[in-house]
From TrEMBL:
Top-level taxon in the UniProt lineage: Archaea
A Pfam short name: DUF22
Domain annotation DUF22: ranges: 30-105
Descriptive protein name: DUF22 domain-containing protein
Length: 122
């Protein structure tokens, strides 16, 4: 569970320094991580399913994009997340993907269902 301790002091310091919450510096460097199913899931065309995936660690302030190029013949990953969503400036762990099917079939364990593009931010 995320702890709030110390956050109020950081916010007060940022306001004193005239920094604005939400201000981000983006490093153009990043990396591409495959989104890999960690379970088999049966899908039908038009269905939206939650699929467990191999965990991907996201460092605080990193910005995520899902690659628009489809990686799986049965559908496309729309988003990723974890059981309890964490704040942007906290460490996050991708645990599942939301997958929309365009054909009937089975997403197999180990299938690449998308690509996550991670940009480093401060």
């Amino acid at each position: 569970m995320f702890k709030v301790s110390g956050r109020i002091e950081k916010i007060e310091e940022a306001l004193k320094e005239k920094k604005y919450p939400g201000k981000i510096i983006i490093d153009v460097q990043g990396k591409k991580e495959p989104i890999i199913a960690s379970e088999a899931v049966e899908v039908k065309a038009g269905e939206i399913k939650k699929v467990a995936v191999n965990k991907i660690e996201i460092h605080p302030n990193n910005i995520l994009f899902i690659s628009a190029y489809a990686k799986h013949q049965l559908g496309h990953t729309l988003s990723v997340g974890e059981e309890i969503p964490m704040p942007f400036d906290s460490k996050r762990i991708v645990e599942h993907a939301i997958f929309i099917a365009i054909k009937d079939g089975i997403v197999k364990k180990g299938d690449i269902i998308g690509n996550l593009i991670i940009l480093h931010g401060e």
